[in-house]
Amino acid sequence: MEKRELLYRGKAKDIYATDNPDVCVMRYRDDLTALNGGKKGSFPGKGALNRRISDMIFAFLETGGVKTHFIKTINEYEVLIRKVHILPLEVIVRNIAAGSFSKKYGVPEGKPLKMALLEFSLKDDALGDPMISPSHAIALELVTEEQLNQISGVAMGINNLLKALFDRVNLTLVDFKIEFGTGSGGNILLADEITPDTCRLWEKDAGVKMDKDRFRQDLGGVEEAYREVANRLANY
Length: 236
Ligand code: UDP
Known about the structure:
The protein is built from six helices and 14 strands. The protein is an alpha+beta fold. The chain has two domains: about 80 residues, Phosphorylase Kinase, domain 1; about 150 residues, D-amino Acid Aminotransferase, Chain A, domain 1. The strands form three sheets. Strands 8, 9, 10, 11, 12, 13 and 14 form a seven-stranded antiparallel beta sheet that branches. A five-stranded antiparallel beta sheet has the order 1-2-3-7-6. A hairpin with a 5-residue loop joins strand 12 and strand 13. Helix 1 runs parallel beside helix 6. The radius of gyration is 17 Å and the shape is globular. The two termini are about 30 Å apart. Bound molecules: uridine-5'-diphosphate.
């Protein structure tokens, strides 16, 4: 496999072409961003930690029957992935009120929700990723009704798998964001990453934040938290 030109530069990852048109290299960077890119930071090794965490989670989900873009780890920062067309939809699953949800609906952070909540946002930084309904997603032709049904079922299944995984390493999965893409045959694959950048993870008993909220809220100990999540998953 030969790594070729940069196809896409995201906020914390880059995607490169390869000599195989169906395969890309995804490279994690050490960058950290928050507030829709308005707050920037980094620490050395952050990309490698997120690569480790996401690879472990994607491999775990694959064994649970979830189809993903993941092919194999190349090195500390790089992964080989199936090339997908990313659907312009951010899929958020919430188990406990936190973040923008708490603010928007006036619900205290930490309140468990009666049922897991599925939300969709239009993936568009310029518009600030506005929340949309399933009807918006279909009417705007972001996805078909069939794709949306499939994505919704897979997202809830991922929530159940991840809640159990994190519970075993003494972390509570508060909420997370995932993205899907369509592969060469039009099949839907879980894409992007699942890391402390995209999940809220709290210590099971003490409730200590072990995710990007440490950076968003200037709590310190960002690197330590990411390293701890990686080590717990690796030792599980
Ligand atoms: N999230 C994300 N990218 C986004 C928006 C949200 O990864 O562009 C994640 C976020 O880290 C959290 C979950 O999705 O785990 C729910 O985030 P929320 O809607 O509460 O937004 P925030 O408070 O992060 O602005």
